Amino acid sequence: MKSLDSFDFAAIPALNKMLVLELARGAYVEQRENVIALGPSGTGKTHVALGLGLAACQKGLAVGFVTAAALVHELLEATDERRLLRLQKQLAAYKLLIVDELGYVPLSPSGAELLFEVFSRRYERGSVLVTSNLPFDEWTSVFGAERLTGALLDPLTHHVHILEMNGESYRLKVSRRRQSKAGAPTNAS
Ligand code: ADP
Ligand code: MG
Questions:
Q1: What does pLDDT average to in each consecutive run of 10 residues of the chain (189 residues)?
Q2: Sign of the C-alpha dihedral computed for residues 67, 70, 76 and 82 taken in this order
Q3: Alpha-carbon distance 150 to 88, whole Å?
Q4: Largest CA-CA distance found in the chain, in angstroms, rounded
Q5: Could you give the CA distance from residue 72 to residue 133 in angstroms, rounded to a whole number?
Q6: Ligand 1: which atom is nearest the Cα of residue 100?
Q7: What does the pLDDT read at residue 162?
Q8: Which ligand is nearest to the CA of 68?
């Protein structure tokens, strides 16, 4: 459980704090708009996603949180067991579906196709919040096909709020601060 209250916005100046606080009010979920948080590892994307998820829960909205890899795994398993429709209905019940870590693991063609279907089904019906370590122009490497990536990005980015989270890893920053306090030499640049 992570909340926005424990998020140190000063640690990541690239992030638009006002936008995050505005999103925490939840209006984007009512409007069925999406959020994409982009940035390298350790910059607080999952923390912010959890914080926004919690904020939406507190407004009484049904929120689902899953990593992209786990979601694809579930979709493939549901397909094998002939219960894909049921899973799709379950996913559709969420007002906000948070898909964390898109891009960490490349997807199989059928996995990409299934994930694409989840996103396109939600278009203007429910919100998606995606976090990714990949800039948009590298998304093809996850979805494999250029055509699929375009088809995926199109509905996802039509009504979207982008959270740019470029910065230094928070963990790295904290451990370096700790080291320099202890007077230990540091090699990190
Ligand atoms: P990412 O998902 O971008 O890789 P995480 O959200 O997992 O990064 O952040 C890594 C760790 O650092 C988590 O424990 C998170 O709570 C913490 N963290 C990252 N950024 C901040 C921040 N700005 N303020 C407080 N904690 C942070
Ligand atoms: Mg993360």
A1: 96 97 97 96 97 98 97 98 97 97 88 90 93 88 78 83 94 86 61
A2: negative
A3: 22
A4: 60
A5: 18
A6: 2
A7: 95
A8: 2
Predicted local distance difference test score (pLDDT) of residue 91: 97
Q: How many helices (H) and strands (E) would you count in the chain?
A: 9, 5
41 lines ligand 1 (CB under 6 A): yes
Give the CA distances from residue 57 to residues 29, 112, 168, 186, in Å, rounded to whole numbers and listed in that order: 11, 28, 29, 41
CB 57 within 8 A of CB 23: no
Distance in Å, CA 39 to ligand 2 centroid: 10
Backbone angles phi, psi at 86, to 5 degrees: -65, -45
Q: Which atom of ligand 1 is nearest to the CA of 131?
A: 2
